[in-house]
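>> Question from a student workshop board

For tomorrow's exercise we were told to take the sequence and the ligand below, predict the bound structure, and bring the output to class. My setup keeps failing. Could a helper post the expected result so I can at least see what it should look like? The ligand is NAP.
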Amino acid sequence: MKAKFFRALVAEQSENEIFKRSIKELPIAGLPPGELLIRVEYSSLNYKDALSATGNKGVTKNYPHVPGIDAAGVIEESSCNQFQKGDRVIVTSYDLGMNTSGGFGSYIRVPSAWALKLPAGLTLKESMIIGTAGFTAGMAVFHILKNISPEKGEVLVTGASGGLATIAVAILSRLGYSVAAGTGKTEAEQLLKLLGARTIISREELLAGNDRPLLKPRWSAVIDTVGGDILANAVKSSQPLGIVTSCGNALSASLNINVFPFILRGISLIGIDSQNCPMNHRRHIWQMLATDWKILFPESLYKIVDLETLDEKIDLILKGKLTGRVVVKHQNN
Ligand SMILES: NC(=O)c1ccc[n+]([C@@H]2O[C@H](COP(=O)([O-])OP(=O)(O)OC[C@H]3O[C@@H](n4cnc5c(N)ncnc54)[C@H](OP(=O)(O)O)[C@@H]3O)[C@@H](O)[C@H]2O)c1
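>> Workshop helper replied:
Here is what the output should look like for this input. Compare the format with yours to find the bug.
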């Protein structure tokens, strides 16, 4: 018999303004309108989910709410021609998990324009080890590949033990780049080396000399996930004509920098926005992630959690204490 209810991690505001999270049974009939009803098999935890789950109104305006900007699963109902019942699909970004009930519920209903057929070469689980974090890494890699060949020298990845950065380290290494992993966690060194990083750079080293207008050129390209003075230093220490991709703000949303790296070294600073990535480019990046850029998925790269154990990971990601990716497995049926 078709399910009428689904389990979900629900964030809600209590009377004293404190946000709490609990697991609830919700009616499928209560999901928003959309052409596709999807039974979610896997989701994943991204930094934005932790913001949504803790009441950040810049991400989610109305509560109670089911977070989860990522979902991978099987279509149970389709009222459009492009997708059929039984198709395996990925849904990431758009409004999923922001103001639309998201992947931390075992069912979602979404517009067909948000869904992408699972590319051959990836399982649903692998697609969520990648998730929005890894997809964003893929978008940054796309720019580096287009502009910088591996012979040009080291590529720096910052916040290297995080979800986005670990996938970036793995893809770049797979493509033959010499990767320097900048991290604040000595305990992440083993994983980063396993993923292919050649050099480990401490957070202190990444921050050194931030009062100077330019630093000795070192990086051929950069994938930055932290912002602030680490991003400023990365720009200032890039080689002439280097590419710096700005993906995140785990340290700070500020960027205190002058124009010298741009007008004296021709550095390009490229913003990466996964949420508004057009579907044709999105499809291309997923296709590459499933084929030429496909990484190994060592077990130390990710943890599988259920809704019960997801809760503690939300607190850890907010404190910058997670290493690698967290994949949510739903217990449907
Ligand atoms: N542009 C986009 O479309 C897009 C998509 C996805 C994510 N993001 C953003 O990218 C960033 C990373 O996301 P994620 O999911 O990979 O998060 P994550 O798993 O929490 O990784 C963030 C990493 O940043 C480092 N970090 C944390 N706090 C720091 C601090 N105070 N100073 C310096 N480094 C710090 C830590 O790495 P180390 O300990 O190894 O240094 C941490 O593991 C977030 O800001 C997120 O919002 C953007």
